[in-house]
# Entry
Amino acid sequence: MSAAQETVLPEPGPLRRAARLLAGNRLGVLGFALVALIVGAAVFAPWIAPYDPAAIMVGPRMAPPSAEHWLGTDNIGRDLFSRVIAGGRIAMGVAAAALAAALTAGLALGLLAGLGPRWLDNLLLLVFDALRSFPTIVFGLAVVTLIGPSLFTVILVVAITSIPIYARIVRTQAQALREAEFILAERAMGVGLPRLVLVHVLPNVVGPLLILASMDVPLVIATEAGLSFLGMGVRPPTPSWGVILNDGYNFIRNSPWPVIAGSVPIVLVTLGFTFMGEALRDIFDPRLRKG
Amino acid sequence: MSDPLVRVERLSVDFATPRGTVHALRDVSLEVPRGRILGLVGESGCGKSTLAYALIGLLAENARIAGGAIRMEGQDLARLKPAAWRDLRGRRIAMIFQDPMTALNPVTTIGRQMLDIQYRDPGSRAEKRARAIAFLEQVQIPDAAAKLDVYPHQLSGGMRQRVCIAMALLTRPDLLIADEPTTALDATLEMQIVALLRELQATFGCSILFVSHHLGTVAELCDEVAVMYAGEVVEQGTARELFHDPRHPYTRALFDCDPARIREATRRLPTIPGTLPDLRRPPRGCAFRARCAQAFGRCAAEHPAMIGQGHAARCHLLDASLSEVGGTPA
Amino acid sequence: MLIYALQRLALSVVIVAVALSILTLMLHVAPGDPAVMILGPRATPELIAQTRVEMGLDRPLAVQILTFFGNIAQGDLGRDVFTGREVSTIVFEQLPYTLALIAISIAWSGALGIALGAFSALRRNSWLDTLTGVLSVGTISIPAFVMALYAVLVFAVWLRWLPAIGAGEGLWDGLVHLALPSFAMGISWVGYVARMVRASMLEVMGRPHVRMARAFGLPERRIARSHVLRIAVLPAVTLIGTGAAHLFSAAVFVEVIFARPGVGALLVSAVNERNYPIVLGAVLVTTGIIVLATLVSDLVVAWLDPRQREAL
# Structure
């Protein structure tokens, strides 16, 4: 209804948008920077950490931050900074493994749901809905009861709870593929299904999946930390952030530093990946942007 | 001739966009006569909707009145404060919109909405309900009393538009602005709504500003017509004058392109070659020059004024022909 | 409306059934003998055999699932291996504490979130809007259990304003003991709801019917209330319903950290003891409550939005 809306100008492509956006979107840049920092710290952990995370220091326990111990020491006398760095490695490792598993399974299930028979689609959707209505931690606890607490358990739990969201995206694309007429033409010409999927489905889902994965990482990290905090995930003395927090909680009246040391990285990871995810969303699909 | 209800004087409206300032309305002057129907015609982007929204003070946030005035009942609407606008709207000025499917509040009943707009009026709830029913009957909605308790999504598009018309007239406005009210409806409904509007105008005597790009509808309904192009009024006159003797090349081209005029089978629909000028940088001379088959030297250099008494058009050709005949340019 | 409610109820039952089937399936897919798993550390050969018969583990899988559902329908969730008490009794004893915690958390955070979101949308770019925005991002980034730890740290350890342990005695003391836990549970929720309501309001404010209301000279306040907010809160209401799931997760941590009684604390201790019947019972009840919460929120939405009553 305004004249301005009727003057149509061409939309710039994704690369152009990315450049322009990152220039104007400082939060997005911050997100990418944080993620780079965290992933870098995780990869180079053994070289960055000043001490061995399991080594018991000679100085005082529960000491506040100082020049020798940047984040202080914990209740047994281990250097908190080194433990936090090592915890970062675990967190990123869990995220990477879980995401890889969830994306693969999500892709497979999504294709099955979108391209397979109707009953299978309905069944899978029902399973997805059921999984989604489960609180993650409760589900995690149930799994722990069955197969015992461990790093693998955590990865399994997180992967399973993430699968539905990825599967849905793939399913939608696969369904659209099914309806498209040019697919019939290609099938008639003898083009095999795997190739069709590769050429038509994958390019369309890469963007949304990346965005989802980025937004999913904070949840994965929080779940891992939570389960480890309860003693159901990574077992002490392995220094997951959740374990650090648990130690901190048990001695909270003695010193706040372990709690702070364990929680700040979680917050930074969440902020980083969330900002990065939103920037990715603006780059790949401005239509998804809300408000 | 009685004085006009609304006099638009050299109104200019700009829109601030990320790609530059769009001069959507440029020096527009127009009069809305009392108790008559004025049609506002033009293709998309000509500014007719902008003008309509300016008259009710509902321009978009990035819009700015860059100059001119809108005079009504001694006030300049272009400089009105929000409180004064709230006073005018729903009492002296009312509006019906293009898409009846989204115009009504989906979570409240029709009756509730029709009562809400009477919030300033004295009277009991029962009296207001009765008024609502009376107007629903005026717009020929069957079983009006029952309809008060119905939700908008339970009504068809045509019915919803009638409800909107009833609501607009309920407030007994002096000016009813109709922004393409039939564009979203099919041809049969369009005829019904148009007939309804004509009848209601005769009954209630308000002025109607009817914005549309359907030439046939405008010819049927309107007493006077103004044609807009690229943010300017390029021709105006009575409906009869305009449709029998279009003077501006654009108006003539519009009529030639009207599908209703096609007499013989053809494979190609006539169009006007070229595109609208970029309103961020309006052309110096005549805005239509680039698409006009009869353009000559003066058209590029000099911006034409409206030429003619009563039936006027913004074209240098008129100037030449008048002086040929011996008349003086207006 | 009634038909709609019944349809939603049926759907909920199906979802619960599917969730339980998954769990039962997992019990059998998991490595090890289910009977051993259920008995945990107390397994002796006689108990194992007895349990196997009692739980029907020697019968075919399909029969097991069916009997399982049959029992549940009758309210029989099995017996606790250690104490011999009915699982349903044990779980329902703890349920009121968790429900109170969740209900109060949802109530205060939902109300505050909607209010903040609405005001932020109406007074865009004001200090309130900016503050709400920053707070939202900040609190969303902090998992509930971390928030709980900080709540304990700040309010219980440093300031000593509020208690950090237990549920308290009596109504007033109980409420005082609920303060920190429900704060920790609700605070990130406030940010989430506020953000969503703000975005929703801004979107609705741009809709044609709002413009039409203005065209009739309706006062801004009335427009905000009945033309914008009434529609904009709908997604938030749905969110609050589905938030029950998220809040249950948070409740687990909060009950552990604040040493409160409740289904979450019960679940954690049962997991530690490998007490499978109680774990199953707690998970079942949790799922039921969540499904119920979703149902209630769907019904509220249908009540608020007449268009939903016909769709499913």
